[in-house]
Amino acid sequence: MESGQVKTGEDKEDTFIKMLQEIVRVTPPIAFGIASEYPSVVTLVEAFRKHGPLVLEDLQKSANRNGAVTDRKIGPAISKRLYKVFMENDPASTDV
Question: Of 39, 55, 71, 86, which has the fewest Cβ atoms less than 10 A away?
Answer without folding.
Answer: 71
